[in-house]
Amino acid sequence: MANISCTDIVKSYGAHPVIEGMNLDIPDHEFVVFLGPSGCGKSTMLRMIAGLEEVTGGRIVIGGTDVTTLPPGERGVAMVFQSYALYPHMSVADNITFGLRRQGIARAEIAPRLAHVAQMLGLEPYLDRKPKNLSGGQQQRVAMARAMIKTPKVFLFDEPLSNLDAKLREKLRTEIRKMHLQLKTTTIFVTHDQLEAMTIADRIVLMRDGRIEQMGSPDEIFERPATRFVADFIGTPAMNFLHATMQDGHVARAGNIALRLSPTDFPRLRPGQNVELGLRPARMKLCPEGTPGALTGTVVLVENMGAEGQVITDVDGHEMSFTTPAFRGLAIGDRVSFAIDPGHVHAFDPQSGHSLREE
Amino acid sequence: MTRKRFVTLSLVPAIGLLATLALVSVAGAVWFSLMNRTLRSADYDFVGAYNFLRLLRDRRFMNALEISALWEIITVLGTLALAVLLAVMIFETVKKPLWRNLLCFAFLVPVLLPRVAAAFIWRFLYSPSLGVINYLCGLVGIGPVEFLADPSLALISVAVVDIWQWGLFFTVILLKLLETLPRDPIEAALLDRARTWEIHAYVTLPMLKGPLISLALVKAVESLRSFDLIFVMTGGGPGTATETLDLYAYQMGINMGGRISYASAMSILLLIVTTVAFTIIWKAGKKWAS
């Protein structure tokens, strides 16, 4: 069990910087998710903490020990890879206990520990099999068992669920979360799947181009995105964006669309100022035509998502979508009105992309 | 024309040629081995299994059998050991692709050399009076060492040349195989606190078990045809210290005695022994690799 602290981490390949001056503190017991599009440096960051990648500059401290120059095996971390990275020629039991055997731990002590993790992950029937005779989900469980048996200070997961099908991914996600609640080991989990991040994390570190874009709880990231990039990256269906100009009475206008913003959330907006509005499809509701503040448009497409449907509409030349459980009554070409609570409207600076919301 | 017929027709010429070359000579050897032909006289008799029975009592034949087996074991194990050692060392220490490729290129040169040329070069290097190896030995106060004239050293000295040619070549192959292995299991082993040698002993080399067995078999077959190397370097001597079966058969049949029937019997026996041995090794290897 340990906290992790990264100070001024720089990583560059030749002259090409991948991570530029990253600072990050992860308290003990926390489940942190590195989230971001591919190429944002999240895996590189994880591999540097693991010691698989050299740090160009900066310091990494795990549990009070400076591990910046320590080899991977001496950092007290265990990692689960996207490809599972099992030793193909060894049986499941040998795979799991390989690390303990390398540490010279007595066989008599290894056996009960193996039995314990195998029981926890439901691997008892497979201990004598070779990895190639297991399904993807079972292989990933073996990889997790191999990490768990070492009782590391830190768990590192590098996109561990990306190679699994959707249903299994959901199941293992829950298992990983449960395992963390039970073991409370500090965990870093890398993913590019925002839904996975939202459901599993205590805290999300959203990265972009080697920098931290926003750090916070899933709720903070979802409800208070610090930048347009975060707002766009998080949430399915994706947020609607709309360029508008502020008018008197804290009203943002784009053509025929007029939305009143909350003066307490955005006290510094001045008439004439350009803003980019962000409207979450999930925060908008169908309403009768003529309701004050409602948007009215024609239905372009209805996407059935089961319990809800995403309705894509054309509002005054802008494509806007919203979700509603009542989508089954709608057909292409229908006129619909939908409204959003002013408290859920986001506004961003069109130049910098920063949120204009004041806390 | 159906596909099957097309395949059959296109295979016929090649297989026919191969069959003619292989079967005719084997049948000829079997025919010869049942008679008592020599190069000295034109008349001969049919003697049945006499040649084979005599072989079993021929101590020089038994010696040649032993030398052949020794030669196989030394060259195959030596080549693989050298290749594994060098490949792992280069894999761990030389990281720059340019240096690696230059090394690989240099390592390919010996095997490109005709074996007769390699044999002459090394015979010169081994020479007690002129050779550079003995000069170096002299500097540290050893020697001169009779590498090729000392019965206890000669076989090893010739094997060194074979291992030099093939071990370096296999090093290149193994290095390239190591490079194709996925990085993840190696990294997982690093996190599992495996030392460098443990990573290779427990992870990378077991992953290359299949290719390693194939390489061993290729080398075993190749080692069977080392006649030219041994012939040039020692001619089977000193005494019979480096006389393998093919050398003995040559000495018996063509060089000294001209007893081609006896030599033919020897070749047939060699053919049977190697076929049986290799089938067993191949089967065992396949079972072990899976």
UniProtKB/TrEMBL annotation, chain A:
Q: Which CDD domains match?
A: ABC_MalK_N
| Claim: ATP-binding is one of the keywords in the record | yes
Its name, as the record gives it, is Carbohydrate ABC transporter ATP-binding protein, CUT1 family (TC 3.A.1.1.-)
Q: Residue ranges of the ABC transporter domain?
A: 4-234
Q: Which GO terms describe its cellular component?
A: ATP-binding cassette (ABC) transporter complex, substrate-binding subunit-containing
> Which organism does this sequence originate in?
Salipiger thiooxidans
Q: Which PROSITE patterns match?
A: ABC_TRANSPORTER_1, ABC_TRANSPORTER_2
A GO term (biological process) for this protein? carbohydrate transport
Which PANTHER family is this protein grouped with? BLL2173 PROTEIN, MALTODEXTRIN IMPORT ATP-BINDING PROTEIN MSMX
User: A single Pfam family, by name?
Assistant: TOBE_2
A molecular-function term among this protein's GO annotations: ATP binding
Identify its protein family: Belongs to the ABC transporter superfamily.
Per UniProt, the keywords (alphabetical) are: ATP-binding, Nucleotide-binding, Transport
Matching NCBIfam families: PRK11650.1
TrEMBL record, chain B:
Q: Which residues form the ABC transmembrane type-1 domain?
A: 65-281
List membrane-spanning regions: 69-91, 103-125, 153-178, 260-282
Q: Name one GO biological process term.
A: transmembrane transport
Q: Where in the cell is it found?
A: Cell membrane
The record's section on InterPro entries has: MetI-like, MetI-like_sf
Q: What SUPFAM superfamilies does this protein map onto?
A: MetI-like
Q: Name one Pfam family in it.
A: BPD_transp_1
Q: Name one GO cellular component term.
A: plasma membrane
- Domain of life, per the record? Bacteria
Q: Which keywords annotate this record?
A: Cell membrane, Membrane, Transmembrane, Transmembrane helix, Transport
Protein name (Swiss-Prot/TrEMBL):
Carbohydrate ABC transporter membrane protein 1, CUT1 family (TC 3.A.1.1.-)
Q: Where does this protein come from, organism-wise? A: Salipiger thiooxidans
Taxonomy, top ranks, is: Bacteria, Pseudomonadati, Pseudomonadota, Alphaproteobacteria, Rhodobacterales
